[in-house]
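ok trying again, last paste got cut off:
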Amino acid sequence: MRRLAFIITVAAAIGPQARAADAPIVKAQDGILAELTVTGSEALVRWRFLRKPSRPIDQVAATYNGRPLGIPTVEPYPGAGQAVAAIALLDVSGTQREEQIERFKQAMLLLAARKPTHVQLGFAVYALEGHLLVPTGGDAKETLALLAAVPPLDEEANLSGALVSSIRTLGALDADRRAVFVLTDGHNDGAVALGDVATLAQSLGVSLFFLIAPGRAADVTALALLAESTAGQLVNDKDIATFLGDPFALLNSGAQVRFPLGGARKFLWDSRSELQAEIRYGDGRIDIATSANIAAASTRDTAAYLWHAHTMSVVVAGGMIFALLGAAALAGTRKRAARPPPPGVGAAAVIEDMQSGRHYPLTAPFLRIGRSPENDLVINEPTVGRSHAIVQQVGDLAFSITDQSSANGTLVNGHRIASAMLADGDVISIGSRGLRFCILEA
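nice, full thing came through this time. structure:
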């Protein structure tokens, strides 16, 4: 059997040569593929669906040593400059398959017609050997004419060899996601084991999609496992028409969330340096962790953190020190420590719950509002998102509120906002709760 030889100049039809990419921490769970990458300035959390989702993503959060990172930026896929590189690979082996091959050519044309602008798609055919359809002038119509002119070949079907060459070709391209769409009856005369194909595809980040029509003998179960292991999909003949309605849906699913690391600090008591991302969906959760090189906290950073995060502990500790000054001071200090600080102590602003009258001082750089008990202001209502909104101090007596892409939105003085500056007396509406924003006198 002759060795399959693909024309590696597929790059001329699909895109520029690749750059080296940082290897992310990857985890797949419940049909969701999640990635965590840490650079010097940010933690990047990416996710995509591996199959049609049954539950949406509710929340994406990140912490350093258990402490929340700064306000994230959410970018739905594809973001600016992101691209998908793909090859549509047609099995033309077997003269008895002429009708099926012609039908698959029409399917390849639909792939091209449904292609979004950020998807770079090349065409190739294979039997015993593979051939890339490269137009001399780069004209799409010429590519389609070349495809139409390819006849069925009376040769063996080297499917596994064609996959290996296609995967290696895509692995050499600069793309965020890569895929091979194989149109075939699934028959394989190739000598390369499908397990080796899966390993290669996983290492180069290539998803394999099989559009299968009945024909010669084929191990469809093995191909289905191969597709699933590479975040791809096997589509049976009866489902091909539906799949071609949106063939790039899985490749284009998901988003990326950027968490700034500029405000993160490693304190003296931190025995580890761990950055953890959390993706919540329904009752499920994906946790991904990695080590991170974070700047050491200064004395001022440490004092500010202790005051904001452990105000009562600092007050009690201070009371214990002053207790050394005398019994009278000890009694007074205990009495003061036993009382909660009045609203706004150590804060430039407070948020008043107009229903309960409770005050929430803005003593940290930001105050989180939402349904999750991890928030600073918890509103346990089904219409409130897990992480609904964030109030942040952005300057001297300057504050903003940002909606965290919640389903039911955030209102300021009756107007729905994505992000807005807050003035003294503004009323924030989240769910059924009214919250009054108050700036304290200096």
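cool. The two ends are 84 Å apart (CA to CA). Residues 47 and 55 are 14 Å apart (CA to CA).
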